[in-house]
Q: What sequence folds into this?
C-alpha cells in the first residue's frame, strides 16, 4: 500500500472512488460504462423549470441549516405515504447534499474511535472511508451469491452473530444493496432488528 504522507493514519490506503476509476477506464478503453448509473434521460421538465426560475431570486441565499421547511415537510409526507413512518419535519428531518454526505456525517456523529461497524460485503464504495474518517472499524458480513446462479445474494445469520461483539456500535444496512442488487426480505430485516435490539446497536439504513 502506498503511503500518502499528507493523509491522517486512519485514511491511509484510501484513494479515489470506484466510480472515478471505472469511468476513467471506460473512457480510456472506449468501453460502454456499466460502472456508474448515468441516467440517459433528463430530469423532469417541471423540476428543471422551477430550478431555472429560482436562479437570481431569494432562493439563492443560504437555506436554514436543516433544509428549507417546505422540503422537510415533503420528506416527512413521503415517509408517511410510502413507509407508514411518522416523522416531525422540524425535529426529525435533515436535508443533506446527497446520501454520501448524510452517511459520512452520521458516522462522524455516532461513532467513537475504535467502535465497530457491521455491514454487508461487498461494501458500497463510500462506507469504508466514512467509517474510517470517524475512526471506526469495518466488520464485514459477506453476502453469498445464489448457488445456482439465479436468485438473490444473501447473508448467513451465523456470520452476523459472529461479527457482532461488545465493540459493535452500529449496523450499517443497504437495501436494495449496491452492488449486488439484493433486497433484504422482511424475515432478514426482522432478524437484523432482533440482533440490533439484543446488542443495543444503532442502525443506519441507506435505501
Ligand atoms: C447504496 C448507495 N448509497 C449512496 C449512494 C450515493 O448517493 P448520493 O449520490 O446521494 O451521495 C449511492 C449511489 O449510487 C448508492 O448506490
A:
Amino acid at each position: 500500500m502506498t503511503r500518502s504522507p499528507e493523509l491522517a493514519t486512519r485514511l491511509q490506503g484510501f484513494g479515489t472512488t470506484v466510480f472515478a476509476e471505472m469511468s476513467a477506464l471506460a473512457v480510456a478503453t472506449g468501453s460502454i460504462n456499466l460502472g456508474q448509473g448515468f441516467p440517459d434521460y433528463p430530469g423532469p421538465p417541471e423540476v428543471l423549470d422551477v430550478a431555472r426560475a429560482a436562479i437570481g431570486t431569494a432562493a439563492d441565499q443560504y437555506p436554514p441549516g436543516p433544509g428549507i421547511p417546505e422540503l422537510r415537510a415533503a420528506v416527512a409526507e413521503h415517509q408517511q405515504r410510502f413507509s407508514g413512518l411518522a416523522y416531525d419535519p422540524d425535529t426529525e428531518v435533515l436535508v443533506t447534499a446527497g446520501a454520501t454526505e448524510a452517511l459520512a456525517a452520521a458516522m462522524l456523529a455516532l461513532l467513537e474511535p475504535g467502535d465497530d461497524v457491521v455491514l454487508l460485503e461487498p461494501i458500497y464504495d463510500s462506507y469504508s472511508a466514512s467509517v474510517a474518517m470517524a475512526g471506526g472499524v469495518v466488520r464485514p458480513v459477506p453476502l453469498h451469491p445464489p448457488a445456482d446462479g439465479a436468485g438473490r445474494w444473501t447473508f448467513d445469520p451465523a456470520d452476523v452473530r459472529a461479527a457482532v461483539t461488545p465493540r459493535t456500535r452500529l449496523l450499517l444496512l443497504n437495501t436494495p444493496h449496491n452492488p449486488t442488487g439484493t433486497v433484504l426480505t422482511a424475515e432478514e430485516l426482522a432478524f437484523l432488528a432482533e440482533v440490533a435490539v439484543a446488542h443495543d446497536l444503532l442502525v443506519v439504513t441507506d435505501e
